[in-house]
């Protein structure tokens, strides 16, 4: 961790401690998919410094390998969460409700000796699917603690029904054994669903990409951005990651080990941004004490929305520092 980051951690920690402890924020900058039928890749993923792993039963696994995938994941779950130098999210992506594989996946995954931290539920279209999923979870009465759930929105129906999906997820979680923690934008499936043609700028999915991040924030969920499938092009990945971070996304899906450090770095604010935020917060409180709500800060007008942006940035740095020792 840099000297500046350490200093900020000491100065700002107490200020935000209350907010952070309320929702047990877990950092999810890179969400790495690992095909569930491939033990070699799972072992490799266990050795990586990655925020979030999703052992995959869904699209990373061929249709004739589904059973192999869930049985392999079952064995890895039974062996326990691997020890790493820092906390990470140990998750499983099951198949969608509509696929009719979902129940079989849950029957296997949720009867393992150790449960994953998180279940990723792909292709959520409407609240009925969510209710069905929730009732399936209820069958596992051994679930003593709430399991975290990541909801994938990757169809036109899902984007259209997003507000109702988030409302229902929050409502159901009040007295059920799961907790929605994030929304994922499944850009590739969404493109296919609406019959769009993919461009480098992703203008064809801009509305959905923005709607998802807006809705995530409205419901205090993390927002996880599209996957970058040109996995050998790390410059392009960096550019798209920064774009997602600028839009308000808190993380990005990845498919290859080489993508992990690029994405995790891109979702960290730069030292320049951290200094800007720290100076702005100090200046804001100085001006506020003298009765000024808006003031000139290095040539720009600053008032309370800008303060909130600076506070968001510092809060994020604080959480990253706590979870990753960076
Ligand atoms: C792209 C592929 C085929 C290139 O596979 P490769 O074997 O040619 O790669 P490599 O460069 O040779 O691999 C180097 C090393 O990394 C390992 N490795 C490689 N990948 C992984 C991985 N993911 N996790 C852990 N380890 C991995 C690999 O085993 C090898 O290990 P080694 O050096 O020890 O021999 C391969 O990386 C892969 O299978 N990735 C995962 C693909 C996947 O899960 N796709 C589905 C998720 S995206 C999605 O669902 C869409 C979305 C969101 O739903 C929507 O937008 O709609
Ligand atoms: Mg998908």
From TrEMBL:
InterPro entries: Aldolase/citrate-lyase_domain (IPR005000), Citramalyl-CoA_lyase (IPR040186), Citrate_lyase_beta/mcl1/mcl2 (IPR011206), Pyrv/PenolPyrv_kinase-like_dom (IPR015813), Pyrv_kinase-like_dom_sf (IPR040442). Its EC number is 2.3.3.9, 3.1.2.30, 4.1.3.25. The keyword Cell inner membrane does not apply. GO terms for cellular component: mitochondrion. Mg(2+) binds at residues 154, 189. It is found in: Mitochondrion. Gene3D superfamilies: Phosphoenolpyruvate-binding domains (3.20.20.60). The keyword Metal-binding applies. Belongs to the HpcH/HpaI aldolase family. Citrate lyase beta subunit-like subfamily. This is Citramalyl-CoA lyase, mitochondrial. It comes from Agrilus planipennis.
